[in-house]
Design goal:
It comes from Pseudomonas kielensis. This protein is mainly β. The protein has 4 helices and 16 strands.
């Protein structure tokens, strides 16, 4: 997963996709987020559960434990290691959902620069990515060590042609279960290893190279260029 995504709907649209009737503490406001080109280490809308209350906050995309001496800030966690490795042990129980509209990948196709592709759900519904992290608690201001990572898995189907990793995307039913902090850790591990949405859920297409500049934030970045390809039917349509 290359590390660029979009969150342009309003947070209430993302919460509605979850289908949870819980009370919501929303620090993001009610307007559309209008973020078309979100880069790592920036503040990203995140949904997590505290008790019976949903919280929607901006949280830094990236996290590392206090003892780590790595200079790079990890933004993703490999599903094969996240449940048992020491690096993410402190935040493995702290599950969240990163709701996005799409993500981007860059593919070398023989030209002077890589071609950006946008990946979204075929039904255009919000994409509910499994995440873990350390979050602002009780409405307090974020701390310097708050942050989150998106869990990633091996790509399948036509998505392999874009990148060998993909975000772990859950159905709304599984996303609700993921947010339930009473769920046993063994069930959480089973979910991330075996129950992600299949490649057939998604479609992808080329977009303008302007998305490569993180200063660009406008709807034109998500406009298709050429054929739309679909999981399970990589010959595309349109």
């Amino acid at each position: 997963m290359c590390g660029r995504l979009s969150q342009y709907r309003g947070i209430h649209d993302f919460v509605a996709a979850l289908g949870m009737p819980n009370a919501l503490v929303n620090t993001l406001g009610d307007d559309a987020l209008a973020q078309y080109n979100v880069a790592p280490t920036t503040q990203v809308a995140l949904i997590h559960l505290e008790g019976e209350t949903l919280h929607a906050d901006r949280v830094r995309w990236g996290w590392r434990p206090h003892w780590s001496t790595d200079h790079a800030l990890p933004i993703n966690a490999r599903v094969e290691k996240v449940a048992h490795g020491s690096f993410f042990r402190a935040i493995w129980p702290h599950r969240a959902i990163t709701p996005i509209d799409n993500w981007f990948e860059w593919v070398y196709e023989g030209g002077p620069t890589k071609q950006p592709y946008l990946i979204r759900r075929r039904d255009r519904a919000p994409i509910l990515c499994a995440a873990i992290g350390q979050y602002p608690a009780g409405g307090r201001d974020p701390r310097a060590d708050d942050g989150f990572v998106i869990i990633t898995a091996d790509s399948v189907g036509g998505l392999v042609d874009l990148h060998d990793r993909r975000p772990l995307v859950l159905s709304p039913e599984l996303a609700r279960e993921w947010l339930n902090l009473g769920m046993p850790k063994e069930r959480a591990e089973q979910m991330v290893l075996h129950e992600a949405e299949p490649a057939e859920t998604f479609e992808w297409f080329k977009v303008d190279s302007a998305v490569g500049n993180v200063r660009n934030h406008h709807p034109g970045l998500i406009t298709p260029i050429g054929k739309v390809l679909r999981g399970g039917d990589e010959k595309g349509n349109g």
